[in-house]
Automatic annotation (TrEMBL):
Entry's family note: Belongs to the RNase T2 family.
InterPro entries: Ribonuclease_T2_eukaryotic (IPR033697), RNase_T2-like (IPR001568), RNase_T2-like_sf (IPR036430), RNase_T2_His_AS_1 (IPR018188), RNase_T2_His_AS_2 (IPR033130)
SUPFAM superfamilies in UniProt: Ribonuclease Rh-like
Record GO terms (molecular function): ribonuclease T2 activity; RNA binding
Alphabetical UniProt keywords: Disulfide bond
Record's protein name: Ribonuclease 1
Cellular component aspect of the GO annotation: extracellular region
Gene Ontology BP, a term: RNA catabolic process
Organism expressing this protein natively: Triticum urartu
Domain of life: Eukaryota
Length: 233
């Protein structure tokens, strides 16, 4: 029996829908290098070349608006991850993005001076759940960072890296929220002197990875005090 092309499309549609990952928004996560490097673990630079004093991408992470039951267990899941073990990272698919990736999404970990392992992990854990192919996923993250330059946004608000000054974490959130239209989540860490400092910014992004959306409920503020350092790099 010959199937009409429209009938075939109808038959395939459930299969295509079943392969899509269900989630509500992305976290576009950027990390301040000064706060990564002045912890007790220190940092290392790919090719021994210090990157610019600019926020770097950590990842583009699919997320749920509310945590969900995890199968038949009593646990919950707040995001999908590792959605397709067969779709392994292939650097050749993003070869045209390599210079932008090195500049904006490089590793600072001393475990490797090659960012490829970092990108591979981000793709395997998060990118395979994004409903994008590899090139589209990495390009979306790069374009979003370029659209909203966090370093410039904070500088324009009078929030500049400093070894002496501290800043109200609410002022950091407000500056980014006013510039982007969505108040972000803020994560802090502690430096080697046990001072609280701005570490990562979590921007909520639509399912296409292109535009800001309101973060669900109260924006995350992890391990922050009211006043935080924004260390020089």
């Amino acid at each position: 029996m010959r199937l009409h092309c429209c009938s075939l499309a109808v038959l395939l549609l459930p299969l295509l829908l079943a392969s899509a990952t269900d989630f509500d928004f992305f976290y576009h996560v950027q990390q301040w290098p000064g706060s990564f490097c002045d912890t007790t673990g220190g940092c290392c630079f790919p090719g021994n070349v210090k990157p610019a004093a600019d926020f770097g991408i950590h990842g583009l992470w699919p997320n749920y608006a509310a945590c969900r039951p995890a199968g038949d267990t009593n646990r919950t899941r707040c995001w999908p991850d590792f959605c397709n073990a067969g779709d392994t990272f292939n650097p050749s698919l993003i070869s045209d993005l390599r210079s932008d990736m090195d500049r904006n999404w490089g590793t600072l970990s001393c475990r490797s001076n090659d960012s490829t392992a970092f990108w591979s992990h981000e793709w395997s854990r998060h990118g395979t759940c994004s409903n994008m192919d590899q090139h589209a996923y990495f390009l979306a993250a790069l374009r979003y960072k370029a659209r909203f330059n966090l370093t410039r946004i904070l500088l324009d608000a009078g929030i500049a890296p400093s070894e002496e000054r501290t800043y109200c974490v609410g002022s950091i959130r407000d500056a980014i929220g006013e510039a982007t239209g969505s108040a972000p989540g803020i994560e802090c860490n502690r430096n080697a002197r046990n001072e609280t400092q701005l570490y990562q910014v979590y921007q909520c992004v639509d399912l296409a990875g292109t535009g800001p959306v309101p973060c669900p409920a109260v924006p995350m503020q992890s391990r922050c005090t009211d006043q935080v350092k924004f260390p020089a790099f």
